[in-house]
Amino acid sequence: MAIQALRGTTDLLADELVRWNAIEQTVRGLAQRYGYREIRTPIIEESSLFLRSVGETSNIVQKEMFRFTDRGGHDIVLRPEATAAVVRAYLQHNLHKTQGFTKLFYIGPMFRAERPQAGRFRQFHQFGVEAIGSSSPWIDAEVIALCVDILKACGLAQPLLWLSSMGCRADQTASARALQERMKSHRKELCEDCQSRFDKNVFRVLDCKRQTCHQLAWKTNPSPFVLCKACQEHFDRVRKALSAIGIAFDDTKVFARGLDYYTRTVFEVRASWLGAQDAVAAGGRYDHLVEELGGPAAGAVGFAAGIERLILAIRPSESSANSGREGLYVAVANPQLLVEAFRLVQALRQQGVATSMDYEGRSLKAQLREADKLRCHWVAILGEQELKNEAVTLKDLEERSQQTVSRDRLVDVLTEKEPD
Ligand SMILES: [Zn+2]
Ligand SMILES: [Zn+2]
After folding, report:
1. Which ligand is nearest to the CA of 194?
2. In sequence order, which residues have a C-beta less than 8 Å from that of residue 208 and are 6 or more positions away?
3. How many angstroms separate the Cα of 375 from the Cα of each of 16, 85, 398?
């Protein structure tokens, strides 16, 4: 049997890429408008980067990391997420010394080793931003505003923004103790994973994928995070900043993000009609990660959005893609004119006109059929007569009309009539 792409991976063909490129363009345009600059980090990283940042008890590290040992014995992963890698790069290139507060965005593939299931890929794609070096609540609001702005510009109708705070590390320690206390008597009802994570990181029970754990945790702990005065104030200021710029949020839903590095503000953006369980984008503040990865004490906040998930969320409202005709096809009346045609095609391409031709010496009829199949807007027919007159016969496949156009006017005619 012919070789197939690995399960959980996808080839993106031209029609699909129209949508992907539009999303990437929107991300780049808006992120830059908000003052974020692009960063690209490698796809492979040392495993310890994620063990130290995402956390040993997280689902990512315990079950989902694409981890292997290379021939030199190095413990390597295909990156499961980008935040830790971006912070690693921020420190490695001394941006904390040369720039201080730094705003970055990224677009790229991430990897997950668990068995692929519906809508979950081994190679999936994310875009996101990281604002590193500030603890100001204004930055939380800016990151959230940018996230919502991008998702809306990509065509996500009515995004729902869930906003919460997980408090500082001291709050989390106190909250964890209270959580353990309230759930102690139910410990036996939890899944095996949760039982073993109970002492090390009881918050994992809050985002366990087993319904029974999840329900039990939230039933006994309707609001698991108790905030100190400073965290309460920070959260209030984030909410005020968002209200000031008209961004609606729901702060009644309490939720936990399944990564260890989050502190204070956390948020998720959901598609109202996609059902409650899947977030299109999620993020929050991670005020200790820079320090934990060997840098100075520096606050930071960011988000990541899944491109596959976003496309799923916006697809139904849009189905008219790929309708217009584009470009020019140069057809020859006989194969002796191929050199002339090839010369014309190259000249037109250099003048900015998308141009194709037939290289197989097929009949004129077959060439016209090909032009239609490629959904070209125009066909320029080159025959002996046209060559003598330094002209072409130009057919407009959209309007079904035909005219003779001299070679020196051809580009003008094409670019004038061609809608952009
Ligand atoms: Zn606090
Ligand atoms: Zn569980």
Report:
1. 2
2. 190, 191, 193, 194, 214, 217
3. 16, 43, 9
Nearest ligand for residue 202 CA = 2
223 C-alpha to center of ligand 2: Å? Answer: 19
- Local confidence pLDDT in tens for the 420 residues of the chain: 899 999 899 999 998 999 999 999 999 999 999 999 999 999 999 999 999 888 877 777 777 889 999 999 999 999 999 999 999 999 999 999 999 899 999 999 999 987 767 667 899 999 999 999 999 999 999 999 999 999 999 999 889 999 999 999 999 999 989 888 888 888 888 898 888 888 888 888 887 888 888 888 888 877 788 899 999 999 999 999 999 999 999 998 877 777 778 999 999 999 877 665 578 999 999 999 999 999 999 999 999 999 999 998 886 555 444 567 889 999 999 999 999 999 999 999 999 999 999 999 999 999 999 999 999 999 999 999 999 999 999 999 998 999 999 999 999 999 875 444
Ligand nearest to the CA of 193: 2
CA of 132 to the centre of ligand 1 (A): 20
d(CA 375, CA 327): 8
Kindly give, in sequence order, each residue whose CB lies less than 8 Å from that of residue 412, ignoring residues fewer than 6 positions away.
none
**197 Cα to the center of ligand 2, angstroms:** 9
Question: Ligand 1 mean position to 145 CA, how many Å?
Answer: 24
Mutual angle of helices 137-153 and 14-33, in 10-degree steps: 150
For residues 314 and 11, what is the distance between their CA atoms, to the nearest angstrom? 20
- CA 134–ligand 1 middle distance (angstroms): 16
Query: Edge-to-edge strand order for the sheet containing 75-78?
Result: 44-46, 75-78, 66-69
CA distances from 47 to 4, 25, 182 (A): 29, 32, 35
Predicted structure pTM score = 0.87
Q: How many Å apart are CA 345 and CA 357, to the nearest integer?
A: 7
Kindly write down the DSSP assignment for every residue of 378-398, as one continuous string: EEEEE-HHHHHHTEEEEEETT
* H/E stretch holding 337: none
CA of 164 to the centre of ligand 1 (A): 13
| DSSP letter for each residue of 138-204 | HHHHHHHHHHHHHHHHTT--SEEEEEEE---HHHHHHHHHHHHHHHGGGGGGS-HHHHHHTTT-GGG
